[in-house]
Design a protein that fits this description.
- This protein is mainly α.
- The protein has one domain (2-389).
- The chain has 14 helices and three strands.
- It has a three-stranded antiparallel sheet with strand order 1-2-3.
- α2 (12-32) packs antiparallel against α12, α5 (72-95) packs across α7 and α6 (117-135) packs parallel to α8.
Length: 390
Amino acid sequence: MKKFFTYTKGDWVIWIVVILLSLFSLLAVYSSTGTLSYRMQGGNTEYYLFKHSAIVFVGFLIIFGTHLIPYTYYSRISQIALWVAAPMLGFTLIFGSHINEASRWITLPVINLTFQTSDFAKVALIMFIARSLSRKQDNIKDFKSAFLPIIAPVLLITLLILPANLSTAAVLFTTCMFIMFIGRVKVKYILLLFLTGILCVFMFIGIALLSKNTGRVGTWKARIENFIHPNADDDSNYQSDQAQISISSGKLLGKGPGNSTQRNFLPHAYSDYIYAIITEEYGLFGASIIVILYLILFYRTTIIVRRSPRAFATLVAVGCSFSLVFQAMINMAVAVHIFPVTGQPLPFISMGGTSIWFSSIGLGIILSVSRDIESEQSKESEISQKLANA
């Protein structure tokens, strides 16, 4: 472990958090994919473990490479990334792979890996909003020159994500409002943005309901209705019911790694409901550790941004951290039946591909900010030492 930290920079606590989350991920994915392995891979239970291990390993390489790049470069990259993200989202809506009545993915040729373009757009928008706010701090209270140019890309990107993925659009929209709050935007402007976002959602739903084919709107409506008024006579709440059985059977210490029984009945136990499997196998104790790890990640980020004298570093780090932790809390809230089904994966734990890699980019940016702060503090310490010895 000591040798590992000689090659890495930045906050060592965050590195440990990511390692622990990844270990939980490998154990949980291996346990929860047993049924999937027999159905899709002829009983080869190691297939998904090796595949997920490779994805996690690439994720670590992405974190390592990203955290070595000076964070100021991401300010410049965001300008290009946002211009790429918008047409990419539009292309996905029209020509993307159509799965579960939603076009969220582009299938990459040759390697045959699905790529969720909203993951890329999320990172691009967070970087761009952080850049815009940092450059407008002198007149940040002005509506016309500061606020309007910032909300335009927020509304554009979230509206392009909305038709296929309401939950991701909502998470990203909330993250942007949080960054604006940290960036000293007037609260009344943020409330105006919030009301505008709600109005856009209702307009989209209204138009969709007036058409013959409601598509995703029908799915959202059914999920909310089933959450508010569950019907025990049908299978509309099957996922939620199985998740609750899984969680309740875990008790305090759980059944032990690999001993879950609900993994055989719970759909998407390796992604959307992986937290339920973790709770069943590791109990309330293990489930609490997961929550604590995410809270530590956010807490350590707040420590980092308090040390940073630069606005962009503060805003981009807190934005990336809030996005990851907020998404994690929503996933866990769905598992314990506090929220209706959203389809949000649990960052760094759920089985996936590009979602893990773009989460790794966000974490790498946070560590890049931390690395820069450590470097500056080290230089200041050296200068002070030289002055003391002079």
